[in-house]
Design a protein that fits this description.
Radius of gyration of chain B: 24 Å
Shape of chain B: globular
Largest sheet of chain B: none
Number of helices of chain B: 10
Number of domains of chain A: 1
Structural class of chain B: mainly alpha
CATH class of chain B: Mainly Alpha
Strand content of chain B: under 5%
Distance between the termini of chain B: 39 Å
Structural class of chain A: alpha/beta
CATH architecture of chain B: Orthogonal Bundle
Distance between the termini of chain A: 41 Å
Helix content of chain B: over 70%
Oligomer: heterotrimer
CATH topology of chain A: Rossmann fold
Chains: A alpha/beta (264), B mainly alpha (264), C mainly alpha (279)
Helix content of chain A: 25-40%
CATH class of chain A: Alpha Beta
Order of helices and strands of chain A: EEEHEEEHHHEHEHEEHH
Number of strands of chain A: 10
Amino acid sequence: MSISIDAVTHEYRPPRGRPVLALDRISLEIADREFLALLGPSGCGKSTLLYLLGGFLPLAGGAITVGGKAVTAPGPDRGVVFQHFALFPWKTVRENVLYGLGKKRLEKDERLRIAQEHIDLVHLTGFEDAFPSQLSGGMKQRVAIARTLAIDPDVLLMDEPFGALDAQTRIIMQEELLAIWGRSPKTVVFVTHDVREAVLLADRVAVMTARPGRIKEIVETKFDRSELNELSKTPEFVEQVDYIWNLVREEALAADAARAANPG
Amino acid sequence: MIFPVIVPVSLSDCGSTQMALVLRRYSPLLLIVIVWEAVTRGGLIDELFLPMFSDVVIAFWEILQEDLLYHVGRSVARGFTALACAIVFGASIGVLMAWYKPVRILVKPVIQCFYPMPKSALIPLAIIWIGLGDASKITLIFIGCLLPVVVSAFNAARGVDEVLIWSARSMGATEGEVLREIVVPAALPEILHGVRVALALSFILMVSSELIIANDGIGFLIGFLGEGGDFKGMFACAITIASIGFCADRLYLYVSGRILSWQE
Amino acid sequence: MAGAQETVPNDRKPSSMRAIGGRLFETVGPYSVIVGIIVLWEASAQWGDIDPFLLPAFSTVMSRFFADLFSGKMLMNAGLTLWRALTAFGIAGLLGVTLGILMARTVPVRWFFDPIVSIGLPAPKIALLPIFMLWFGLFDAAKIMMVAFSASFQIIATTWAATRAVEKELIWSARSLGATDRQLLWQVILPAALPQILTGLQIALPICMIVVLVTEMVMGGEGLGSAMLRASRFADSPGVFSGILSIGIAGFLVIKSLEIVRRRLLSWHQEVAQDRATV
């Protein structure tokens, strides 16, 4: 499923005070089965753009289409993985993964089979009856990924999915995500503030400006990803990270200056 | 400050350490009972003001043979009926208020008006409207307990983590399904906390209404015995209902702990 | 923030008539609901078939309310009730906070009072009213002691929890900066625990109001509670309604005052700075 973001504008309305322009006529084309990273300083609107793609927020201007159809509301064609897992704490792992499946017209056996398949896929076999409160951060995120993949969405929207994990778990999860994506490629929009992570995982990295968000630059980051460990040591990789980091740094400093000028 | 305290250091003879911990925790009560008996038996306090503990126990036994169970039964039946209705009604209203704006706009002002009103002020009104029987007491307890349940249900439903709702929507849940399957379970812990407050309030209103509209019930019995000069019996009944209130609270904690076993 | 699908579909512009209408509805709504209820009340009392004993007209109640207000009777009763409630609140507050802090800081005190507080908190202490009448007589003292007793458990429990919960790091930092025990208590622990202690007091205040009315109704004499009960016994329904109104106002004033005190005392705390409100 290709995604087309056309001159999209979004305003953020705080409960008190004037509305703030979060995104300013931002445009972006994402190809079918492309892995795209959205990168930018804090507050640049990258998560906002993701939520607009997900259909959770209203557009103030412009249009978003996924696979040719306009986005007006959330739906199972666009699966979402959130930073803080968003697991239903009163449901077990299996029940969480079954939730989305329950909304499709499937036989009970079929649903259980697909759920188990995905629990195995994220290496959580044996934890089917555990509650989220009993799981570590990494395990919770795996459940979230399994839950989202189980409904087989056309597009995968990920909002800093590894941001809440410790550094070691994060590296492991990055590898696993690429492995899963390699097996059944989908269009992925991956929001992160970690430059290294973006270059490691994505085909293209879209760097956003400070608020109001626009696309500053799009950098191609096609590498041979068969050996992830080795990739991060190659000079090409380091060069790309450096180049993109300087882009982000410019914007981060601009954002800081803007905040200092307008406190509160 | 050094305090010579004689506390049983080792109760290993008692069997399980769990038992020992409970005993050690409640041992001050034993101390109080001993002092009580000693002070009254020794004549330090007039028997009229404080009957001997042993006499109170005997009085309790005697009243138990007579009609204590009847009165306690009447009280508990009233309180339980009213509380159950308040829980069902109140939780529904609270959740609906949180979910549907029109309901909120309609009901919130009414709640804000009644919030600062001491519920016992409604007793004379209940007498005028409903009379001096069961119905007025039940209605009183119902209305009094309604408010904490509505408020906690409202706050709980309002406070449900947005990403849970978004996840459900993006997996294809309808609005009705989101309300039933996500908001209500997610709000349950806080609702149950509000119900605990309502439980204590139900006992207060139960006893209060029976002290004032005195025809039957434990509150009536306490007043009746007091007026008749049977202070031992009065003490016994007062301690009885206080203990029942305490036990109800503990039982409630146990049950809600089981319901919420998915929490840490 | 949770709510039914409140997001506007993408094909609608936000700054439309609909949005302005929505804003208007929100601000005017609450008041119009109250006004609507009053209008309904008056209409059904005047022209409906309702027994004026059960539902006296709003106008009747209001005129009775003001009559009582200007005759001074209501102020006298309100004054008595509030004097009892607030004195009891003061006693409960002082003793409760002290005991709560002691429980958190000294083991013997905690050992002794823990089961008492733990059992007493959920127990209906109003059941002991006849005992208090036996001990303190038939006038104000018994009422005040009963109210204080009822409210103190909440205050003790909350203060104890608040003091207990002061972060170890705060205490350790203070100690390593050379704070004495007394300085530690007054300059570190109490301010840190203050928000939660105040919350406990804010919960205890309505308890005082509820219990003071019950004591007045049971024991008679003067006061808003006993006046209302007398009115109900004499089938004086405007009196009952007017009484409810006055108690509602008194309760509201008292609770709001405590909120203002809280704001003042906690002006340094982020909850005031960020103006977080709860229902």
